[in-house]
Amino acid sequence: MAKPVPRTGSRRNGRIGSRKNGRRIPKGVIHVQASFNNTIVTVTDIQGQVVSWSSAGTCGFRGTRRGTPFAAQTAAANAIRTVVDQGMQRAEVRIKGPGLGRDAALRAIRRSGILLSFVKDVTPMPHNGCRPPKKRRI
């Protein structure tokens, strides 16, 4: 008679959600993507695995209010709150995009108490980009 194999995520053995708060992360990377319509803040560990994320849209801002600096500040605070509880002390910050939430998100990250090793702008810049369309003939 075969022995039943216990399922790893079943409710009976009480392991639901145990992976989320089991990891201690001393150092990580905070990615801020600031567009004109929204600001997304993602916190990863050194390997690049996502630990926590938040955006202005998930914080309850809708429409044009998502692109405001206050919405970016709220999104950054929400994303960082969970990783501070997991023990993150040091972080690198990478900011991408031209949006209004760049400075506000960085201010919220500094206020959280995490030591920043460096702040880097990784906005993609074209090196002369795509070929423009032909001139219109009249």
From TrEMBL:
<dbReference type="GO" id="GO:0009507">
    <property type="term" value="C:chloroplast"/>
</dbReference>
<dbReference type="GO" id="GO:0005840">
    <property type="term" value="C:ribosome"/>
</dbReference>
<keyword id="KW-0699">rRNA-binding</keyword>
<keyword id="KW-0694">RNA-binding</keyword>
<dbReference type="Pfam" id="PF00411">
    <property type="entry name" value="Ribosomal_S11"/>
</dbReference>
<feature type="region of interest" description="Disordered">
    <location>
        <begin position="1"/>
        <end position="24"/>
    </location>
</feature>
<dbReference type="InterPro" id="IPR036967">
    <property type="entry name" value="Ribosomal_uS11_sf"/>
</dbReference>
<dbReference type="InterPro" id="IPR019981">
    <property type="entry name" value="Ribosomal_uS11_bac-type"/>
</dbReference>
<dbReference type="GO" id="GO:0019843">
    <property type="term" value="F:rRNA binding"/>
</dbReference>
<dbReference type="GO" id="GO:1990904">
    <property type="term" value="C:ribonucleoprotein complex"/>
</dbReference>
<dbReference type="GO" id="GO:0006412">
    <property type="term" value="P:translation"/>
</dbReference>
<comment type="subunit">
    <text>Part of the 30S ribosomal subunit.</text>
</comment>
<feature type="compositionally biased region" description="Basic residues">
    <location>
        <begin position="9"/>
        <end position="24"/>
    </location>
</feature>
<keyword id="KW-0150">Chloroplast</keyword>
<keyword id="KW-0934">Plastid</keyword>
<keyword id="KW-0687">Ribonucleoprotein</keyword>
<dbReference type="InterPro" id="IPR018102">
    <property type="entry name" value="Ribosomal_uS11_CS"/>
</dbReference>
<dbReference type="InterPro" id="IPR001971">
    <property type="entry name" value="Ribosomal_uS11"/>
</dbReference>
<comment type="similarity">
    <text>Belongs to the universal ribosomal protein uS11 family.</text>
</comment>
<protein>
    <recommendedName>
        <fullName>Small ribosomal subunit protein uS11c</fullName>
    </recommendedName>
</protein>
<dbReference type="GO" id="GO:0003735">
    <property type="term" value="F:structural constituent of ribosome"/>
</dbReference>
<keyword id="KW-0689">Ribosomal protein</keyword>
